[in-house]
Design a protein that fits this description.
The structure is a single chain. The protein is of the alpha+beta class and 417 residues long. The strands form four sheets. Strands 1, 13, 14, 15, 18 and 19 form a six-stranded mixed beta sheet that branches. β8 and β9 form a beta hairpin. The protein starts with 7 loop residues before the first helix and ends in an 11-residue tail after the last helix.
């Protein structure tokens, strides 16, 4: 559809379908006291009067943003855009009026382009990006990106931004897990995301990492982890020798039932050893939707129990926050870094006509002790802000603090993963 085809009549249809979809699909239409009818009425004129397609999409997103929920947005199926975390496997930190690369995940498009944490973004395809407007990236494009290196030297790199094969949604191609033994014999496990619905491959990587490191002290780095699937269960299971309740997700349909009880939900408490084991899981949960209770796998005693730190930051979201909340609720690890993002609702996307979709949260998540983390996040036990100046000098102050928390720290060089 060309811009000329996006006339007022079509825009009105898209608005109407979006409003209807929110009312039918959003986990809780009254969430945070939002008056959805008032919101749509206040934005309608600006949406209808938008002069360009980009402005129309931006105004629609402004309306959706007033729902004040995570996993929401409005996007075109033919020319989607996404944040750096979703599109290129990186996150940003605001330093003055400039954006500094904060987390750069190994194997992602930003990492492949040679970008490092501490580099500063200047332009994308010639456009200057300054705070507070967050940079976005067109999917499926090869983009020229001007940066300022840690040293202060200017540079231009090319970032190839992928597109997923399904529904034109963003696809992050990063290395999910990496590990090493730091000075002092401290195991370091970095998990950039939890790919897949169940996470069979990631679970095997975590098993291998802990077996190879064979450590009695452990740092688990979840900074910049955008979440994903249930591979996070393997991390939580290694934090305790026991079978413990992690939390539960519940759909709007189930929570509105008068007989709802979390103890009656179907239980997910084991990641299969192979993908063949996914078949029984599909049969088990197919008729129950997305409402499920989660329990740990009972992995037994580990050498590092009692000596674990978890690194999180404001970009740690979803499944990563499940891990942090579980560890904090049971006192299984010391949380280091900055408060997590508070994005714990499960999402879905829905067509609203003329090549557009609206993404909305459709599943609630609470810890087993009924703590709701959406919009709240997980507070660190040891607060350590991101320090770009130290990073440019090769020091990762958050990682150093995490190593301090389990003892025997030797200054760690800044990591790029």
């Amino acid at each position: 559809m060309s811009h000329d085809d996006l006339n007022r009549k079509i825009r009105e249809q898209i608005i109407r379908r979006t409003v209807h979809t929110v009312r039918r699909k959003l986990y809780d239409p009254g969430m945070n006291g939002v008056d959805w009818e008032q919101v749509t009425n206040s934005h309608r004129a600006r949406i209808l009067d938008a002069e360009t397609r980009d402005e129309f999409e931006a105004q629609m997103n402004e309306m959706i943003r007033e729902l004040r929920v995570s996993h929401s947005g409005f996007f075109s199926e033919s020319s989607p855009r996404a944040s750096a975390k979703i599109a290129i496997g990186a996150t940003f930190f605001a330093e003055g009026n400039r954006w500094v690369f904060q987390d750069v995940h190994g194997g992602g498009p930003a990492h492949k382009a040679g970008i490092e944490p501490g580099d500063t973004l200047l332009t994308i395809q010639g456009r200057t990006w300054t705070t507070p407007e967050m940079p976005t990236f067109a999917l499926g494009k090869d983009l020229a990106v001007e940066i300022e290196r840690r040293s202060g030297a200017p540079d231009t790199v090319r970032i190839c931004v992928p597109v997923s094969k399904k529904k034109n949604r963003p696809l992050v191609e990063v290395k999910p897990a990496s590990w090493t033994v730091m000075p002092g014999g401290i195991g370091y496990l970095k998990i950039a995301m939890f790919p897949g619905v169940v996470g069979v491959d990631l679970a095997r990587d975590i098993d291998r990492a802990l077996r190879e490191m064979d450590c009695d002290r452990l740092v688990i780095d979840l900074r910049g982890n955008s979440g994903g699937g249930m591979g996070c269960l393997r991390v939580m299971s290694y934090l305790t020798p026991d079978r413990l309740g992690v939390g539960y997700s519940v759909t709007r349909k189930d929570i509105e039932r008068t007989d709802f009880e979390k103890h009656c939900l179907p239980v997910f408490d084991r990641i299969p050893d192979s993908k063949l084991g996914l078949i029984p899981l599909v049969l088990r949960f197919a008729s129950r939707g997305r409402s499920v209770a989660v329990f740990t796998e009972r992995k037994g005693p580990q050498r590092f129990h009692g000596n674990v730190t978890l690194l999180v930051n404001e970009h740690s979201a979803s499944s990563a926050e499940m891990v942090a909340a579980f560890a904090k609720e049971y006192g299984l690890a010391t949380i280091v870094g900055t408060k997590s993002s508070g994005r714990l609702l499960g999402g879905g996307s829905f067509r609203v006509g003329h090549g557009y979709r609206v993404a909305l949260p459709v599943v609630e998540y609470k810890t087993w002790r009924d703590v709701r983390l959406e919009g709240e996040g997980v507070e660190p036990d040891i607060a350590v802000p991101f320090d770009p100046a130290a990073l440019r000098n090769g020091r990762d102050t958050q990682l150093n603090a995490a190593a301090d928390a389990v003892g025997c720290r030797s200054d760690q060089r800044a990591t790029t993963g």
